[in-house]
Structures are given as C-alpha cells and as structure tokens.
Amino acid sequence: MTIDEKVRKTLAELGVTDARGVEALFAEVRATMEHEREELVSHGAANEAERNLACKRLRDRWLARKSGLISMIDERWLKCAAKEVKPAVGKAFNELRRVAGDMEVEGLISRVPIRLELHATDTFEMKESVSALVKSAAWLDLTLPGNRRPLGSIHPVTRVLREIEDIFINLGFRIETGPEIETVYYNFDALNIPETHPSRDDWDTIYVDNANQGLGVAGEKSEVRSQKSEEERPLTPDTGNLKPSLLLRTHTSPVQIRAMQKYGAPLYIIAPGKVYRHDNPDSSHATMFHQIEGLAVDRDITFADLKGTLDFFAKRFFGGKVRTSFHPSFFPFTEPSGEVAISCVICDGQGCRVCKESGWVEVMGCGMVHPEVLRNGGIDPSKFAGWAFGLGVERYAMMKYGINDIQLFYQSDLRFLEQF
Ligand SMILES: [Zn+2]
Question: What are phi and psi of 57, to 5 degrees?
C-alpha cells in the first residue's frame, strides 16, 4: 500500500493501535516525503519554467490546503484517532508538519539545479541518456572551481603600436598599410634615395631574388615598369649584374608614396608595420622590427605644424612633463630634415645612464617632404606641402617599460611576456 492509499484510511483501518505503530507509520511518511524531495533535487530541471512547475507540484502534493497529503493525514489520522493513540499522533503530526516546511516552493527552487539545455533537435534517446547521466552524477555542483585556461596578454610591441596609433587616430590620421615585400622603386627611388646611397647595399638591405624564383609578382612588375626610373635602375656598380627589383622593405616610408598615389592630397596617414634590415642581432638591433611612419600633406602646412603635432604626441605618450627638442639632420626624402629628442623620462633631463648623461633621448626622425617625393606621389609641390616622421616601435616599448634588450621581444619567453 502506498502512502497515497494509506492516507485515505483511518489508523484503525490500517491496524495502528499503539504509539509504536504511530511512530512507524509517520516515519514511513517522512521517508517518502524526503525521498520525493531528494529525487527532484538530484534530477534537476531543464530550465527555469520546468523547475518552478516541478517545485510547485511537489509542494501542492504535500501542502495543498484541501487535497494535500498533510491535510489528509490531519483529517483521517489525527482527527479520527482513538483516545489512546491521540497524543502520539498529535506529536508525530506536528513534527511531520515542521519537516514538511522544506516543501515550500522558495526553499526548493534554491536547491534544484538547472541542467544544461538540450537542443530541440536532440533525439528522445539522447535526452534520456543525458538525464540518466545527470542523475548518476547526483547533480551539478556549480560552486566547484572549473578548469581555468590561462589568458594571454597583448605583446608589448603590439600594445605600444596600438597606443601610438590611437593618439594619431584621435588627431585625424588614418592607418595605411603596404606590402612587406616591396619594389626597389618604392623603397628607394621614389623616396629620392640616390643610386649610390649606402643603405641600398646588400649588407644593409635584404633583396628577394625574384628573377630566378619567379615569385608571383607579375602585377607588381607591370606597376614597376610604368615608373620611369625602373629602366635606369638595377645595375650594381661593382658587379654589373642585374639586381633583383624586390626587397624586404627597410622602412615604412614606401607607404607614403603608395598612399599619395592612391588618395592624392590632402592626406593624413600613419603607416605602422614590420621592416627588415641586414643587421646582426644584438641588444639594440634586430633583422625585423616595427616602424610607424606619419605623413601629412595639405595646403599651407609648415614645419610649425610638424613640431606642434610631434610635441603633442610626445606629451601624450611619455607624459605631460616631457619636453621636445628638434635638431637639424639629413634624410634624402625630407628637406629640411630633423631629429626629435625628448627630455629623458628616467632622470627628467638631469642626466643618467639611459640618456648618456645628456638629459635628452632621440626618439624619431622627421622633416618636410621633399618636393621630388611629392611629385613621385603624383602631388604638385607648388600647391601642396607635406611633413613626415618615422619612429621605431620597439625603441618606444623599451623606453616605456625600461627594457634594455630588443631581442627579448622576439624570444617568446613567457617569463618576459607575462609581465605585460
Ligand atoms: Zn636620463
């Protein structure tokens, strides 16, 4: 006889005539009640709606005012109890009612977990097996710590690159990129770098042997042919051999020409990217590093605009106290040309090991774009003027984070990278 059947009978009908019998009967009721509650808790529910419904059902089954099992026990067992057993029934009933408080919906809901939702297309068998799995695992303990996957962090070079980009984007510059395998024309000729310039030497520039390898650069080649200087180009003075017309770009300046040809004037761009040099790696040299090139072309812009912009940039990047200083220099693609130095951020201009006791650190090259370069970009230098600058990103990262060896950036050593 189930509990549901038993509560429909009186104690006399059930043959319970003494305190011991009462105790045993109520123990059975409580065991049933606890079993049903634990069943619900361990089974869980697929979603909130199902859980709320299941909790309410269980509550109503036991605690509903009229048809609930507790009410029926009150009616059939307690009220109809014989005088001899009444005190025992009353005591057991009160205890049962107290324990039945656990069936209140609010309390239940907090204990019944929600199982992972099954997809609507899952088969019935799958649902069954999953629910069996959930049952056998008792229930999902959401408070247990999971398997943590370590989060990576942004590489310091990328971090600094983005920071510099942000400053110039806020000034109205846009980001422009160009190919890392560049033509000799864009890397040297168009930038007014003379035929005899030492940077063209094999020892400084990494050339790509496209003549033999047939690297798929047909498009590049036809583009190059259309440039007038290509015909005069690639004879090395010493060997007389035809030099390859492709190289790994040695600076980001070729993007200046490409952007001028593409967009014309006015133009405000920065060109971040990788550049390659035939250098021996040491604490301040690498065969690959990052540059950011800046170019502004417009009517009536002067060196004062360049100074103002770079001073603003230096203060944004290194801090408001930093002072800038411009010194004459020479680059083939700018005239006049300058080097920008900032007051040493380590010693505040007092002189230290980092600034070699000078109080100043050189941070970039700059200048007014050479009229020949503007012409090569298809822009009339009698109508437009331009200024440009170039900086090494690794150097900025080294200054910002106090790193003394450029090689650390490329060694993929987690002990180093995890610090950023
Ligand atoms: Zn210093």
Answer: -60, -45
